[in-house]
Amino acid sequence: MQVNRYIDHTILKPTTTRDEIVKLCGDAAAYNFAAVCVPPPFVRLSKQLLEQTRVKTATVLGFPFGYSAIEAKVAEAVLAIVDGADELDMVANLIAIRNADWAYLEKEIQALTALIHAKQKVIKVIIESGILSDEEIIKCCEICARYQVDFVKTSTGYAEKGASVEAVQLMRAHLPANIQIKASGGIRTYEFVQQLIAAGATRIGASSSVAIVEQQPAGNNSSY
């Protein structure tokens, strides 16, 4: 398994420095990761640093709590796309989810998906599965399927519980085959990555990406 091509090499802390982004992108290029995921102010720099590589540039919208207005997320998306983002990871409105305001969630996902797809970019909807009930996860999957998002993503990494095999399995069971799953939050080992991929994840968000790849058995890392 060429695990490097599953990974979004990630740094999203609010104190991120330019030097950290330079190192992140250097590592991403060296290990041929799928993407880097960076704070919005660093999209333009990341895009420039990765210009001669296959590595995509991803950023976040409504991060990490998801309760900013739809209009604010739309503005964030527009700016990120102008700066060169290839993929946009949007935190769904968790207040809407926990209050079963499914009409609001539909409106949000519809608006952001239409905008991002019109620009031929990728949208990943983060639902924070670790703090949701199975019923809430299933309902989110149904709405995401209705508007044909590209990925449903387990977690921001900021909640008390991140990715789990069980959540990925539940999501896979309630999403059409064309919608992918990104597992993120607390992923630090190659073994855990293997379990998540076996459960149905096709993308992994991690800050421990280099360590994960280095844990691969010899002979499995020839694709760098």
> Could you name the ranges where pLDDT drops below 50 across 5 or more consecutive residues?
none
The spatial strand order of the largest sheet comes to 1-2-3-4-5-6-7-8
Largest sheet: 8 strands, parallel, barrel
CATH architecture: Alpha-Beta Barrel
Tally of individual domains: 1
Protein architecture, described:
The chain is of the alpha/beta class. The chain has one domain (3-214): Aldolase class I (TIM Barrel, Alpha-Beta Barrel), CATH 3.20.20. It has helices at residues 18-31, 43-49, 70-83, 94-98, 102-118, 134-146, 165-173, 190-199, 209-214, and strands at 7-10, 35-38, 56-61, 87-91, 122-126, 151-153, 180-184, 203-206. It has an eight-stranded parallel barrel with strand order 1-2-3-4-5-6-7-8, surrounded by six helices. The longest helix is centred in the middle third of the chain and has 17 residues, at 102-118. The N and C termini lie close together (12 Å).
In brief, what are we looking at here?
It contains 9 helices and 8 strands. The protein has 224 residues and is of the alpha/beta class.
Key words describing this protein structure:
224 residues; alpha/beta; TIM Barrel; 8-stranded parallel barrel
Q: What is this structure's SSE topology?
A:
Blueprint: E1 7-10, H1 18-31, E2 35-38, H2 43-49, E3 56-61, H3 70-83, E4 87-91, H4 94-98, H5 102-118, E5 122-126, H6 134-146, E6 151-153, H7 165-173, E7 180-184, H8 190-199, E8 203-206, H9 209-214
Parallel strand pairs: 1-2, 1-8, 2-3, 3-4, 4-5, 5-6, 6-7, 7-8
Helix pairs in contact: 3-5, 5-6
